[in-house]
Amino acid sequence: MNIGEAAEASGVSAKMIRHYESIGLIPKASRSLSGYRTYQESDIHTLGFVRRARRLGFSMKEIKKLVGLWRNKARKSADVKAVVDVQIESLEQKITELEAMKAALKELARRCHGDSRPDCPILEGLAT
Questions:
Q1: If DSSP codes are grouped into helix, strand and coil, which group holds residue 38?
Q2: What is the pLDDT of residue 85?
Q3: Which domains are assigned to the chain?
Q4: For residue range 34-93, what is the model confidence (pLDDT) as tens digits?
Q5: Which of 21, 38, 55, 70 has the smallest number of Cβ neighbours within 10 A?
Q6: Cβ atoms of 77 and 69 closer than 8 Å
Q7: Which parts of the chain fold into alpha helices (H)?
Q8: pTM as predicted
Q9: C-alpha distances out from residue 21 to 18, 25, 109, 115, Å
Q10: Which residues on adjacent β-strands are paired with residue 122?
Q11: Cβ atoms of 71 and 30 closer than 8 Å
Q12: Which residues face 38 on adjacent strands?
């Protein structure tokens, strides 16, 4: 299939497919006689894997490692779990930071009267 069909089948844009090829995340596509990229079902499967990993917040470096582990049938599941455990820890840290941000914003909003007066505790809080 061509790049447009591959994009539609995988849910990954053509631009990102070209980018993934350029960084070695997926193998370079073969070319038709007219020079168009052609993709196999295995390429579509890999693109779907990458798309799902991106949705789970993995970095490109981590995804490259996961794809390598996925392709390596002699891999240890412990190696895969180690990558995921690091991602879980990172997400937990981000959640903690987001909860602190939410609490700070709630406190600023609580102090604001939300009326027609020009004084605003929210802006004052952000300015200090």
A1: strand
A2: 98
A3: 3-75 (1.10.1660.10)
A4: 989 999 999 999 999 999 999 999 999 999 999 999 999 999 999 999 999 999 999 999
A5: 55
A6: no
A7: 3-10, 14-22, 41-55, 60-71, 77-111, 121-127
A8: 0.81
A9: 5, 6, 47, 55
A10: none
A11: no
A12: 30
